[in-house]
Design a protein that fits this description.
two-stranded antiparallel sheet; 98 residues; mainly alpha; 4% strand; single chain
Length: 98
């Protein structure tokens, strides 16, 4: 598939708007299901497993929801806005598709 002017423009708008959102929002709190998914599929997050029968009984009761907080670096929003702006400007420089 060959990218034409509208593809570059659309991708540029999406990346620019995502960059603005990442720049304005300080942190994101994931749901319990997303945190569990990341813990199972990532080596960085510890997966909670009971060690003994006592901890198993304590873990089987109602547990507080474990939610991971993601804080993106400050430069990420600026980088995404820059890439989105360049894609939009590049789409304007391309010839119109027939």
């Amino acid at each position: 598939m060959e990218f034409n002017r509208t593809h570059y423009y659309g991708i540029g708008i999406v990346v620019l708007l995502l960059g603005i959102q990442v720049h304005l929002v300080k942190s994101y709190v994931l749901t319990e299901q997303a945190t569990t998914f990341l813990a199972r599929n990532s080596e960085n997050l510890p997966v909670e497993q009971p060690q003994s029968f006592g901890t198993y009984l304590a873990a089987s009761g109602p547990r507080p929801a474990i939610k991971k907080t993601v804080t993106p670096p400050n430069w990420l929003g600026w980088a995404m806005m820059s890439v989105g702006s360049v894609l939009i400007l590049h789409s304007w420089a391309l010839p119109k598709s027939q």
